[in-house]
Amino acid sequence: TPKVSATLKGNGGPEVIISMQRPALLASAALRVMHPKLYLALVTTQINLARWAVESGLRDVCTCLQFWASVFNCVSVICNRQCPLHRDPRSTPEGFDIMTSVGHYGDGVMTLSNLGIQLQYNSGVMVACSGHIVRHGVTCTGDRIVWAWFMRDSLHNFVG
């Protein structure tokens, strides 16, 4: 059963969600252009999730969804971390994850190893790929924040 993450529970939750609205809208708009069918499926999932939360009387979920501006149902905010090559096995294989890095750093490189691709990963660059299928990682030096937007199959399955 879906529930609000611990980070977003309590009085400060809506403030955290509101502070994420701009990057949420940017990632959602990018997905709308890159993969219109996936975008529509995610919008439908959010609508069905909100309907379920209202019918179930789950105020905390309703409150969070009221401010949630992304079509993605999950986000990780990563600060000043190297990211070794990995896959995201709980993400949906058919979906795109969108990763955007911002900050003051140099030598940013994103590696998509099983595709044989290395990208210059400067501040503001947005990369979309199936994190479930594509092995990816980042190296850089300096201060940065990564917004990694993704979705969970389990939530899509739950709301049908």
Automatic annotation (TrEMBL):
Cofactor entry: Fe(2+)
Keywords: Dioxygenase, Iron, Metal-binding, Oxidoreductase
Ranges where the 2OGFeDO JBP1/TET oxygenase domain occurs: 17-144
GO molecular function terms listed in the Swiss-Prot or TrEMBL record: dioxygenase activity; metal ion binding
InterPro entries: 2OGFeDO_JBP1/TET_oxygenase_dom (IPR024779)
Name of the protein in its database record: 2OGFeDO JBP1/TET oxygenase domain-containing protein
Organism: Suillus luteus UH-Slu-Lm8-n1
Lineage of origin: Eukaryota, Fungi, Dikarya, Basidiomycota, Agaricomycotina
